[in-house]
Amino acid sequence: MSRNNIRIAVQKSGRLSDDSLKLFKECGIKFESGGSKLRSISSNFPIEFLFLRDDDIPGYVEDGVADLGVVGLNVLMEHTRKVAIVKELGFSKCRLSLAIPRGENYTDLKQFEGKSIATSYPNLTSQFLLKNGVKAEMHEISGSVEIAPSIGLAEGICDIVSTGGTLLSNGLKEVATVFQSQAVMIANTALSSEKQAILDKLLFRIDSVQRGQN
Ligand code: ATP
Ligand code: ZN
To answer: Is-contact 84 189, C-beta < 8 A?
Structure first.
């Protein structure tokens, strides 16, 4: 099935959505968004948008169901995916950090040796700790990670932080940064030359928008 447009997957609703849509609108691309619509074709640029859960985006781009995607580097790097990062987008900046109950003393990473850590990012977390010579037990949970220490599920957590407010209100303190993240544009590694030409045009427009903001 050949298409003469490029298909891009963006998050349907969440912390990447508004800035993703804003970016494409600033690029002069007209399309409908919002409501229950899961697909939208632009009226003035050869691009089709798919609105999906962010976690599904890297897989769709790897498989070629979508040609491009916008996703947090944190979600991309947690799993091994064969996709190309074609642009750092500079929004949805956050970090993956280790945190422990506020009342506990923190000395260094060695403290996590043999401890259990609740996280939605077990690969990034355990790789980081192993690089620092620490072996801890990962407890994978998909959400509300901050509650884990207070209910006895884990001794520490590793989660996405931007201001630290959520940690604070759950009686936790941030003790080490594992990974710095931001939104990136990813592409399938086997784009046709026609699609590559559309991508080049899109990247040129994004560069112009980004230059205007600096
Ligand atoms: P979905 O329903 O699509 O799976 P989600 O709940 O997994 O959504 P969001 O909370 O919307 O995801 O976060 C999407 C991405 O935004 C994260 O993977 C991360 O890259 C980034 N992000 C998360 N929290 C913040 C934050 N507090 N500030 C800035 N960016 C963030
Ligand atoms: Zn998600």
So the answer is: yes
Separation of alpha carbons 46 and 31, rounded Å:
11
Q: Whose CA is nearest to atom 11 of ligand 1?
A: 14
Residue of the nearest CA to atom 19 in ligand 1?
72
Parse the chain into domains and list their residue ranges: 6-92+182-213, 94-180
Summarize pLDDT for 34-83 with one digit per residue, the tens: 888 899 999 999 999 999 999 999 999 999 999 999 999 999 999 999 99
Looking at CATH, the fold of the domain delimited by 6-92+182-213 is given as D-Maltodextrin-Binding Protein; domain 2 (3.40.190)
The residue whose CA has the least distance to atom 8 of ligand 1 is 14
The binding-site residues of ligand 1, defined as CB within 6 angstroms of any ligand atom, are 11, 14-16, 53-55, 72, 74-75, 92, 94, 160, 162, 181
User: 199: which 2 tokens?
Assistant: 């991508």
Best probe residue, ligand 1, of 160, 166, 174 (max atoms within 8 Å of C-beta): 160
ipTM: 0.96
Number of Cβ within a 10 Å radius of residue 66: 25
